Amino acid sequence: MLNSAKGRNEKWWNALLHLRIPFSVYLMPVYWFALLNTDFNLLRAVLVFIVLHVFVYPASNGYNSFFDRDEQSIGGMKKPPLVTKELWYVVLAFDILSVLLSLLVNLTFTIMVLIYLLVSKAYSYDKIRLKKYPVIGTLTVVFFQGFFTCVAVQAGTGTAYSLSADTIAFALVSSLFLLGSYPMTQIYQHEEDAKHGDRTLSRQLGIKGTFIFTGIVFFVASVLICVLFFKNRTYENILIYLLAVFPVNIYFLKWYADFSKGKPVIDYEHTMLLNKMSSLLLSAAFILMLIMK
């Protein structure tokens, strides 16, 4: 009897682990960046943060795990536990809580949360599975985790929201950053993705091609973000941004150099360290910019 209860508790705990809530930290820069161009209401800003990072993103992670059933390392989890039916119920609960909490923000934000949740399901659902298409899958992630989320944050937190040229520019830059980082999150998963028949962008580019692609896209995104700051006469933000990404660039170049020398460095640990560095440093930079603003 005790063993049976322990087994059920373990399944529920494993379901919660599959939500990978700490992994949401990698998507935080989009949120802070969106606030830079928003006259926001503090209470709504807190609610939007909770809805996205505690409920929406984890629900999407859990749904993805439910259909992937990966046996090797996945984003935010080196050794994923066995997927059980409990995960489905946890994902459903988080979906419902996402929508209910978003209603406390405003109707526009609620509609955008619903759209995001539906698209994230289409990305992983085995009968549609946008994930298996390199271009469509990448564009889906890049648009919805970048442009769409940036606009949703501004619509949810802004005291007087409008889809201005600046709003669109900030949202486009967000998508560019996602376009650069997304293939790098797939770089160590080529074997696992091949098992599922997922032709991810990183698999199509190859390991060397993924590095080159990411380098080019990040350079373009960096130029555009500096142009945005210059245009808005927030010159100090350019310096803050460049200081924040400097260690990330050094790590990225060293990683590529080690790979070029034939070292076995294309693994979960190196990928997650790059994600952690870039996400935390960018978030810190954008928060500092918000404080100075």
Shape field: globular
End-to-end Cα distance:
59 Å
Fraction of helical residues: over 70%
Radius of gyration computed on alpha carbons: 19 Å
Low-confidence parts? none
| Tally of helical segments | 11
The biggest sheet, with number of strands, parallel, antiparallel or mixed sense and barrel status, is: none
Mean pLDDT: 88
The class by helix and strand makeup works out as mainly alpha
> Which oligomerization state do the chains in this entry correspond to?
single chain
Tell me about this structure.
This protein is mainly α and 293 residues long. It has helices at residues 2-18, 28-36, 42-68, 85-102, 107-124, 134-157, 165-185, 190-196, 201-231, 235-260, 268-292. The protein contains 11 helices and no strands. 38% of the residues are buried. The mean pLDDT is 88.
